[in-house]
């Protein structure tokens, strides 16, 4: 009984580890412009780190 539980636990753990590795392979930093379109206030947006980070600039009229 204990060996069956150990075997099932080991298979489950292996499945979880493989799943995590597959998810991590596909993750990469994407540029902001790949996911979002700035439709207004384009002059108030600064892009940093190859587009992976943006800063929104505020003025008195904002």
UniProtKB/TrEMBL annotation:
<feature type="signal peptide">
    <location>
        <begin position="1"/>
        <end position="26"/>
    </location>
</feature>
<keyword id="KW-0732">Signal</keyword>
<protein>
    <submittedName>
        <fullName>Uncharacterized protein</fullName>
    </submittedName>
</protein>
